[in-house]
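Support reply, case 0932

Customer input (verbatim):
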Amino acid sequence: MDDLLAAPTTGPVVAAPAPRHDARDVAAAALGSTATALSVFLVGSLAVQIGRSIDLSVSALGAAVSLCYLASAAAAVPSGRLADHIGGARTMRLAAGLAAVAAALVAALAGSFVTLVAFLMLAGVASAAMQPATNLLLVRRIPERHQGLAFGVKQSAVPLATLLGGLAVPGIGLTIGWRWAFAAAAGVAVLAVTLSPRSRGSLAAHRRSRRAPRGKPEPLGPLLVLSVGFALGVFAATGLTTFLVVSAVAAGLSRAGAGLVAALAGAAAVSVRIAAGARADRRGHSHLRVVAGMLACGTAGYLALAAGSALRIPLLFVVGAVVTFGAGWGWNGLFNFAVTRSHLRAPARATGITQAGNRLAGVLGPLSFGLVATHAGYAVAWIMCAGAVLAAALVVLAGRRMLRARRLEPFPGDAAP
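Our regenerated output:
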């Protein structure tokens, strides 16, 4: 999931490092985001296996993931301030270290629902800290002409975590046990600590640079509307990432097959996010209109999941999963990029407001899906998600119109900001 962008608010702060550093910084940001997202997606992918050791019903699974996002929501604003205060690279190392500790605790000590949730909440705090840190790193170190691709690659880390979680089912969960999957996640987080970029300059120098005068913030109204649209899209996506595997098993797929479906769908989301970011660099305008179109396409995917669940047609379910992950969940990086490009004077404030919707939706999405699936079935829960992403598309378009009225979003014929 996407967090606060803690960047200086003195104007478009874009460094232009040597090209050889660009790919290294983007790769480090993607690895860090993957490492801090792995634990929560492993719980969803390995829920069937975990349920044999820990009492984990469908509604309990939703509650566990919601509490993880609740911890992340509580930590989002302080984490953004921390990254702003000590720098992105330093915060990345702290977040990856915390993610390693959380995953290791799940692997070694999670023996009840309470302990599992407690350790997942630590992972949620790590994710909240990693996202503003990586966003800040990209804004400061990646040239403007490559930032769309950079955000797409970095945001592809979340579906990459889903892909890895899906592969963990047949590769680890069904062979040597689900705890080893979390041990592997801890190893990935340790690698992220090791490969995190070094800070440029001392901490004292970084703090002095933060004392520059701040620019005047843009109007609040469009950001609040976009925050609602973001929340509706993420509301559906968190139900998708948490319950795809267990829903696939209920639709007639084997446990190993369900894990592979999650991996395939995650690969689709990774590809779409990277392609959308690269295309945004060439297009230069109307990014939010593309976001709305992708959300609208995602509606069809969710309806296919509902039909596959109701009719127990595995092929229809697989098609729905790929479409939903690709279109209905492939827009996050483009959305963040659009918000930063349309609010260059105060990107931290702008993305802080929109990301608030992200975190709140992360709390409500899995809990709501779990309750609906328990009492009305998976098909009804997927229909609920379809309605949420369709509403998200309409709200994003409304927010875009408000930005256009204030000339905050680049449009055809405008000079790129």
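We compared this against your earlier run and they match. Two observations from our side: The longest helix spans residues 221-250. The mean pLDDT is 81. Please reopen the case if you see a mismatch on your end.
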